[in-house]
Amino acid sequence: MEEFDLAVIGGGPIGLFAAGYAQLHGLKVVLFDSLDEVGGQPQMLYPFKQIMDIPAYNEITAKELISNLRKALTKQVTIKVNHRVNEVIKNETGFNIDHQFQVRSIIIATGNGAFNPKKFPVKMNPAAEQRVHYFVKDPAIFKGQTIGIFGGGDSALDWALELANVAKVKLIHRRQEFRGLESSLTRLKKMKNVEILTPFLPKEAKISNNQLQITLKEVGSQEVRTERFDQILVAYGFRADNRVVKNWGVNLSGARIKVGAEMKTNLDGIYAAGDVATYPGRVPIIGVGFGETQIAINAIMRELFPEKTLTIHSTSM
């Protein structure tokens, strides 16, 4: 049985920052993430997007932010990827996690929860499925190709803007109107190597002449057209789920965890920070989540070490 002072559940930017801040205070930390790498949605959905509301940075890409947070972690932090926390049991010395880890306290930083991409709604054989992607980690692999992007939200528009630097892009959406930023759509409309097709839904997909041939049907009419792509990206959104925490006895408000002033949940020793947490007036941005982890960890230090004088400022350490 491995023992730790703190378990951080969720390896996105908030979880990574929480682990780093906890190690600064001398806590032995284990960090869990259900994906095969840390970084959460910023790393998986928009790694190349410029983020402009992170303290001390005018702008920084999501990939750079995650890299910086990851580099700050020392051997005091044990990272467990591909580990979805299923069971948390309260005991005399804290909590038992999945019958493998004994921890004294927990911070839940799962954001919108475990998320799975909504699949492309067309039956395909394995050869065709290999050309369908739901994440973009390295735009360079699409260089010189014709890429179809399906979706109308910010992820679809961001991917289109980034891939337009290296490929020919066709953006397909089921409505005339897009949910993503109007400024992003305006930029795309000015690009010569970007074609926007609306309102269309995919109906068939197969490999033809070493390309992915997709039949599109216009919404509200019988018009059908065929488009060919080297590969496609699907940005139909994600099914997020935080409901597993209910099994641990944590109170939810909708899909979020209710917390008090110190980011405490209804269970002593369990805290929540970032977008998974809710309280009146909360703003869902990364910088707010960073501050919430600091509040939670200071509360944890007071709880675990009541006899110690708590050093709050790093300049005093």
UniProtKB/TrEMBL annotation:
Cofactor(s) of this protein: FAD
SUPFAM superfamilies hit by this protein: FAD/NAD(P)-binding domain
Entry-linked InterPro entries: FAD/NAD-bd_sf, FAD/NAD-binding_dom, Fd--NADP_Rdtase_type_2, Ferredoxin-NADP_redctase_2
GO molecular function annotation: ferredoxin-NADP+ reductase activity; flavin adenine dinucleotide binding; NADP binding
TM spans (from-to): none
UniProt-annotated binding residues for FAD: D33, Q41, Y46, V85, F115, D275, T315
Top-level class of the enzyme under EC nomenclature: oxidoreductase
Record note on cofactor: Binds 1 FAD per subunit.
Domain of life: Bacteria
FAD/NAD(P)-binding domain segment(s): 4-283
Enzyme Commission number: 1.18.1.2
Reaction(s) catalysed (UniProt annotation): 2 reduced [2Fe-2S]-[ferredoxin] + NADP(+) + H(+) = 2 oxidized [2Fe-2S]-[ferredoxin] + NADPH
Keywords annotated in UniProt: FAD, Flavoprotein, NADP, Oxidoreductase
Complex formation: Homodimer.
Family, per entry: Belongs to the ferredoxin--NADP reductase type 2 family.
Protein name: Ferredoxin--NADP reductase
Record organism: Lactobacillus xujianguonis
